[in-house]
Write a structure and sequence with these properties.
heterodimer, A: alpha+beta, Alkaline Phosphatase, subunit A, 8-stranded mixed beta sheet, 5-stranded mixed beta sheet, 16 helices, disordered N terminus, B: about 60% helix
């Protein structure tokens, strides 16, 4: 993606927090919400029953604990948007991690986009941005904390997902899931190796592998940034660094600009600030973390995605704009991108399980270590604090809980059998910290957006649509479908799948090459929904799909309904739509074993993967759905007002 | 105009094009318009680079 200079210029925006003139609240009321992404109800309950989560149990004894109904579909951007707005996808407009542009049929990220419209002045090979586009948050609707601010109640919202760029409506905000790296991506590691043909021919997703040469014990290499916004011709920004290999010991010194770091094999660096020269008078700053895998016989060095540096953010990541810097000065630099655990490097085999866990531990600890500082500076009002470490590690490591998983390795995985439990115990410590700071009049809410399940079987939705005759391919003999619908014959295709739960009709007048008339849409959807629910997995003997949610029958909110999938496919617990199908590949097989490292998931029938709701005191208005929780939080402050102005309350 | 193809431009727009093609130092109106169109096309082609888009989307952990 091309990142425009204008984005850097707007780093100062987004600090106009909307403070109300209120004063009609109970003085000193405090509500802390701990948002634990991906914490599963059944697993939490089991650990509580076993006495392994004493702080959870302590809170539940005086308050409540139970399952929290997640969103349809149970994807984090959707679920958190339900929580934030009190609306369903039909209202806030986030239906999936991925949407599609009906005019191009290209999948796109759903949470934010780069707004176009910039102007530039060109001189020679350079262009000088004058004004222009910026990232735009696509979630619609008012956030529940905005209601509090309007009543004069301060809110601090740390890493709320689906809130990038930060809304600017809280007193303090730090953006989370949805925040890109400096290149505008969600994953972009670099791996430097002197090994010839390393990963040759392999599809390395989420990063790049660079072959480097060693001359007299020295490696010269580059980190790559976004496209240089000053150049008319596309060219990536680059920052050179040099690695000096110790001739005897397994040690190397990395020199990047004025920064030097010495690492032993198997050691991670701290954050290293790096600069990307753009034109003689301008540089773009970022930061990177190195991991020295090996000095000999092959040199191997991992570099994280280049992060926005919170010490001097090139993009707006907080409200006010210097809040990120305040946090960095207090506790050190930290991962800024959403979902920082490098699951892609693990999935591609660039790093091992041990290395992934070490990296994920660093990321998780950076976030958890900020909690005491944030608590120390929380006087009253609302504090929301998010942790996503459990979710990301569960995705990659859930198989250790499931010896029946196709990717379970009986030689290795038993070693990690207690890993997920340890993560939950870590969260119990965070709950303990919060409880210590609260009086009996204060409210603690511990919630998660969805649960988790073992992902054993992959459902290739587009292949199923082909098998049933709803989708027609141009070349039935294509061996390796690259996706992006290159093999779809749109003139004969009535339905297609995009995203992780979405199924769309190829509707005339809406889709680029639509053929299904509007008057036949409903009958087609009924027919497809019935066929989905009737599909049986020959391996398990069970259903493949247990819910086929038609959007008009599923969502009550309507403002953004038209951009959503026609059917949201709720696969049976244990089965998930494949990544290949999500990006428009058709392929030949309908159901396959999931043999990937990404072994746990939740993109299934939403009733099978509830999250949790734990409170230290009964809520004035109990919430059983994530969507209702924001409203309940308002009532804790004595505010009985709909989050959305003029909207109904269920 | 343009190798035999003909394109209609609004009279006011054409006047502005003439004025600024001179100021910007283009040798002709055609050269200016060709340059402007190539730039816009390059932008669209860049945005439509499906491999680039796919690579970026695959950065999402959920996509293998």
């Amino acid at each position: 993606m091309r990142v425009r200079f204008a984005l850097f210029l707007i780093a100062g925006l987004g600090c106009g927090c909307a403070r109300g003139s209120g004063g009609d609240r109970a003085p000193g009321k405090r509500v802390i919400i701990l948002g634990f992404d991906g914490v599963d109800y059944e697993f939490t309950k089991k650990l509580m029953d076993e006495g392994k989560l004493p702080n959870f149990s302590r809170a539940a004894h005086e308050g409540s604990f139970g399952p929290l109904e997640t969103s349809i579909p149970p994807q984090s951007p959707v679920a958190w948007s339900n929580f934030i707005t009190g609306m369903d996808s039909g209202g806030h407009g986030i239906f999936d991690f991925l949407h599609r542009n009906p005019e191009t049929l290209v999948p796109v990220f759903s949470m934010s986009e780069v707004a176009e419209g910039g102007t530039t002045l060109e001189i020679g090979k350079y262009q000088f941005p004058l004004s222009g586009g910026a990232f735009e948050l696509l979630r619609r609707g008012r956030a529940f904390w905005e209601v509090l601010e309007n009543h004069g109640i301060e809110t601090t919202v740390i890493r709320m997902p689906a809130n990038y760029p930060p809304s600017g409506t809280a007193t303090r905000e730090l953006s989370g899931l949805g925040t890109p790296d400096l290149r505008g991506n969600y994953s972009d590691f670099s791996f430097y190796t002197s090994k010839l043909f390393a990963f040759a021919g392999e599809d390395i997703a989420g990063g790049d592998v660079y072959e480097v040469d060693i001359y007299d014990g020295v490696v010269e290499a580059k980190l790559y940034g976004p496209d240089n916004p000053f150049l008319i011709e596309t060219e990536k920004l680059a920052s050179e660094f040099t690695v000096f290999l110790d001739p005897v010991d397994p040690v190397a010194k990395i020199v990047a600009g004025s920064e030097e770091v010495v690492l032993r094999e198997g050691e991670w660096s701290g954050w290293v600030p790096v600069e990307f020269p753009m034109i003689p008078t301008q540089t773009l700053g970022g930061m990177v973390r190195f991991y020295l895998r090996s000095v000999r016989p092959d040199f191997e060095l991992y570099a994280s995605s280049i992060q926005i540096d919170p010490m001097a953010p090139a993009f707006p990541i907080s409200t006010p704009k210097d809040y990120a810097t305040e946090l960095a000065k207090a506790g050190g630099r930290f991962y800024v991108q959403g979902l920082p655990e490098d699951t892609k490097a693990r999935e591609s085999g660039v790093i091992t399980t041990e290395e992934f866990l070490a990296q994920a531990h660093i990321a998780g600890k950076e976030f958890a270590d900020q909690f005491p500082y944030v608590l120390d500076h929380f006087d009253d009002g609302l504090l929301f604090f998010y942790l996503g470490n459990v979710d990301q590690i569960s995705h990659v490591m859930w198989k250790v809980l499931d010896p029946g998983h196709p990717a379970y390795d009986p030689e290795v995985d038993p070693k990690y059998a207690g890993l997920i439990e340890e993560l939950y115990v870590g969260l119990d410590g965070i709950v303990g910290q919060a409880l210590e700071r609260l009086s009996t009049d204060d409210t603690l809410v511990v919630m998660s957006d969805h649960g988790f399940a073992s992902w054993r079987r992959s459902f290739h939705l587009n292949a199923w649509l082909k098998e049933k005759g709803y989708l027609v391919v141009k070349d039935p003999g294509m061996e390796e479908d690259p996706g992006m619908f290159v093999n779809v014959d749109w003139a004969r295709t009535r339905a297609y799948g995009v995203g992780l739960n979405g199924l769309y009709v190829n509707l005339k007048g809406r889709e680029k090459n639509g053929i299904v008339p509007e008057e036949k849409r409903k009958a087609l959807l009924d027919e497809i929904a019935a066929a989905l629910l009737a599909e049986v997995d020959p391996k398990t003997g069970g259903p493949v799909v247990t819910k086929a949610y038609q959007r008009e029958e599923t969502y009550k909110d309507r403002g953004e309904l038209e951009i959503g999938p026609d059917i949201i496919v709720g696969t049976a617990k244990g089965t998930r739509i494949s990544g290949q199908s999500a990006l428009g590949a058709v392929g030949k097989e309908v159901l396959t074993d999931n043999v990937d490292e990404w072994s746990g998931d939740h993109l299934m029938d939403h009733e099978t993967v509830p999250g949790i709701l734990l409170t230290n005191r009964p809520l004035k208005r109990p919430a059983h759905r994530l969507q209702d929780l924001g409203q309940s939080v308002l009532l804790e402050f004595g505010i009985d007002e709909s989050i959305q102005p003029g909207e109904r309350e269920d | 105009m343009f190798g035999g193809g003909r394109i209609k431009l609004d009279k006011d727009l054409l006047a502005r094009v003439k004025k600024y093609s001179d100021i910007a130092g283009y040798s002709s109106v055609e050269e200016f318009i060709t340059h402007a169109l190539e730039k816009e096309l390059a932008k669209l082609e860049d945005a439509g680079s499906e491999e680039e888009i796919k690579k970026r989307l695959k950065g999402l952990g959920y996509i293998s």
